[in-house]
Specification:
The protein is an alpha+beta fold and about 130 residues long. It has one domain. Helices cover about 60% and strands about 15% of the residues. The protein has 3 helices and 3 strands. It has a 3-stranded antiparallel sheet with strand order 1-2-3. A hairpin with a 7-residue loop joins strand 1 and strand 2. The longest helix is centred in the N-terminal third of the chain and has 61 residues. The protein is rod-shaped.
Length: about 130
């Protein structure tokens, strides 16, 4: 009787050891997946804000509320919560051609964790509208 309980105890310990090894293998993969989802969501949210800033800036330029010189300051102010260096280029051609605004930021600067392979280039948001 004593001998059988020892074997059951040993089997239970070996199973818990296997669970610890499996957990140690799965945990880094799970954390990478979790942080990747958070990183992607953050980049997507930033890009959405950049598109909204470009759209609002170009709308104000099209109704002559802003000039191309003032557009940079307006877009920078719109995106001031992000603490990033955005590049804003606004064109206000004469005549009936479209007014356009382009906002960009290096993707590596916008990322929460900088993986150079994962985020090359720039995040770019553009908007154009016919002036009224």
């Amino acid at each position: 009787m004593h001998r059988g309980s020892w074997r059951a105890d040993w089997k239970a310990r070996s199973r818990s050891g296997a669970a610890a090894v499996e957990f140690a293998i799965v945990l880094p993969i799970f954390l990478m997946l979790l942080f990747g989802i958070i990183q992607f969501g953050s980049i997507l949210f930033l890009h959405n804000n950049m598109v909204n800033a470009a759209r609002e800036t170009v709308r104000r330029m099209s109704v002559t509320e802003l000039t191309a010189a003032d557009a940079d300051g307006f877009a920078q102010n719109y995106l001031s919560d992000w603490n990033l260096d955005f590049t804003v280029s606004a064109t206000e051609p004469p005549g009936t051609t479209d007014v356009s605004v382009q906002i960009s930021v290096p993707a590596a600067d916008a990322a929460l964790v900088n993986f150079p392979i994962a985020w090359p280039g720039n995040l770019v948001a553009e908007a154009s509208m016919r002036p009224e």
